[in-house]
Amino acid sequence: MNNKHTIDIEFDRKHIWHPYTSMIDPLPVYPAARTFENKIELETGETLIDGMASWWSAVHGYGHPEIIAAIKNQADTMSHVMFGGLTHQPAVELCKLLVELTPAPLNRVFLADGGSVSVEVAIKMAIQYWLSKGKKNKTQIMTAKKGYHGDTFAAMSVCDPVNSMHAMYQGFLPEQVFVDAPRSEFYGSQSQDELNALETAFAAHHEKVAAFIIEPIVQNAGGMNFYHPEYLKALRALCDKYEVLLIVDEIATGFGRTGKMFACEHADIAPDIMCVGKALTGGNMTLAATLTTEEVALGISQGEAKVLMHGPTFMGNPLACAAAVASLTILKRQETMANIERVTSALNALKRCLNLSAVVDVRVLGAIGVVEVERVVNVAKIQKFFIQQGVWIRPFGKLIYIMPPYITSNEDIETLIDAIYAAIEGEHF
Ligand SMILES: *Cc1c(COP(=O)(O)O)cnc(C)c1O
Predict the structure, then answer these.
(1) Fewest CB atoms within 10 A around its CB: which of 63, 128, 132, 161?
(2) What is the spatial distance between Cα 26 and Cα 101, in angstroms, rounded to a whole number?
(3) Secondary structure of residue 347 in the 3-state scheme
(4) Roughly how many angstroms between the first and final C-alpha of the chain, as a whole number?
(5) Ramachandran assignment for 146, one of left (phi > 0), alpha (psi -120 to 50 degrees), beta (any other)
(6) Which residue minimizes the CA distance to atom 3 of ligand 1?
(7) Alpha-carbon dihedral of residues 328, 334, 336, 341, nearest 10 degrees?
(8) Ligand 1 mean position, distance from CA 150 (Å)
(9) Tens digit of pLDDT for each residue in 281-299?
(10) What rounded mean pLDDT belongs to the chain?
(11) What is the pLDDT of residues 354-372, one digit of tens each?
(12) Where along the chain is substrate bound (predicted)?
């Protein structure tokens, strides 16, 4: 234990932005000193059981020896080299794995440096594809409300208009076509009316629409909405019928999180374009990718521009690719998928929160558990309580949710659930 503060929290408070925080009245930040397995050790001595996997990313926990070895090894040889005119083993190996693991038609890979960038690239691909086909009017993107696709401008333009405060950027943000958020629940049945309304929107807008983008099965930051696989199936069929490309944003759901390698497998569909990120490197380095089909890739290159107009400086960063290769290698093992099933079973104990009057709903899918409460949670207050309980959970809105690393033991999941139960029961929110 180390009680000496070396992290200058006062400087941090005054000078450093954290995600979505005020510079006038920032939420408290806790000093993290070390991470290991499924634990976060604070500089103040507490060791916390991590319920967030650092926003969906640390699927194998922290400091996995195989991933750390891969990064160290790669650092000894080549940390980075430009991807323009050069290639390297970690990138090639990673892209082979991505082509192997994703649905069959996806076999062309663009390596991006973060999730939002991969969404920008997906949107560019779609617009450029139709341009090449001579369809110059297809410049809009269609999407469902309550979505989240990142914070850069094109990505933000397809996020939920209310949550991402579109009004603030009016005049600058491209205007997209929104349909209602999917509302038939994952474990319920699919409403035909909902699908009819979706088709009406396609019929009305398709001539101007290049692609429909959606988070498959789980709309995460927009409300942890688990929707019915039939919706996604219907969406695939409508995209085909109306000549619209389907982009699935698997940045949060990919790599086993929903109980399948990719969430679109719940609906047994393949998209035209897929974005992956977050868990790609097992939460060790920033890296994302946009995959597409031969049809779209060749289509783009047949166009006037001939090339896809994107190329980040750190494209295909060898350190990140090496981490991703190691992470995907672990993910492919039978024991990892078995672990996810075990975590699902353990998370089902969250259902006992339904006894509490403040709880509106409890839902579990794959390694995601969500407790929805009746009012917006006071994050600073509940987080203080959670830290006293030895857990790291960061709610948003009315949602207290966990998506722990797949290696989390049943005992640790029980501790996370106990803490959530106690927080709600004791009104610590
Ligand atoms: C996190 C996320 C993004 C953005 O990824 P960044 O790496 O934060 O830019 C996009 N889409 C979804 C579904 C996400 O969960």
Answers:
(1) 63
(2) 41
(3) helix
(4) 29
(5) left
(6) 150
(7) 140
(8) 5
(9) 999 999 999 999 999 999 9
(10) 96
(11) 999 999 999 999 999 999 9
(12) 55, 148, 278, 311, 394
Q: Which two tokens stand for residue 327?
A: 């992470």
Which atom of ligand 1 approaches the CA of 288 most closely? 7
Q: Give the burial string for 45-83 (b: 16+ CB within 10 Å, else e).
A: eeebbbbbbbbbbbbbbbebeebeebbeebeeeeeeeeb
**3-state DSSP call for residue 366?**
coil
Round to whole Å and give the CA distance between 396 and 385: 15
Split at pLDDT 50, 70, 90, the class of 402 is very high
- How far apart are alpha carbons 309 and 187 in whole angstroms? 41
CA pseudo-torsion sign 244, 250, 253, 256: positive
| Residue 352 annotated in ligand binding | no
HEC-encoded secondary structure of 238-303: HHHHCCCEEEEECCCCCCCCCCCCCHHHHHCCCCCEEEECHHHHCCCCCCEEEEEEHHHHHHHHHC
> CA-CA distance, 157 to 149, in Å (whole number)?
9
Q: Which amino acid is at 18?
A: H
The active-site residue out of 62, 129, 148, 227 is 148
One-letter amino acid for residue 246 of the chain: L
**CA–CA distance, 263 with 254 (Å, rounded to integer):** 6
For position 4, what pLDDT does the model report?
Answer: 59
Whole-number Å distance between alpha carbons of 297 and 99: 14
Alpha carbon distance 255, 227 (integer Å): 19
- Number of continuous H segments (helices) and E segments (strands) in the chain: 13, 16
Q: Is 250 in the pocket of ligand 1 (CB under 6 A)?
A: no
Q: Where are the beta strands (DSSP E) in 113-207?
A: 140-144, 177-179
Say yes or no: CB of residue 252 within 6 Å of ligand 1. yes
- Confidence check: pLDDT of 3 > 70: no
Q: What does the DSSP 8-state code read for residue 353?
A: G
278 is in an annotated binding site: yes
Q: Determine the pLDDT at residue 5.
A: 66
- CB of 205 within 8 A of CB of 141? no
Q: Give the pLDDT confidence score for residue 306 in this predicted structure.
A: 87
Antiparallel, parallel or unpaired: β 218-219 and 225-226: antiparallel
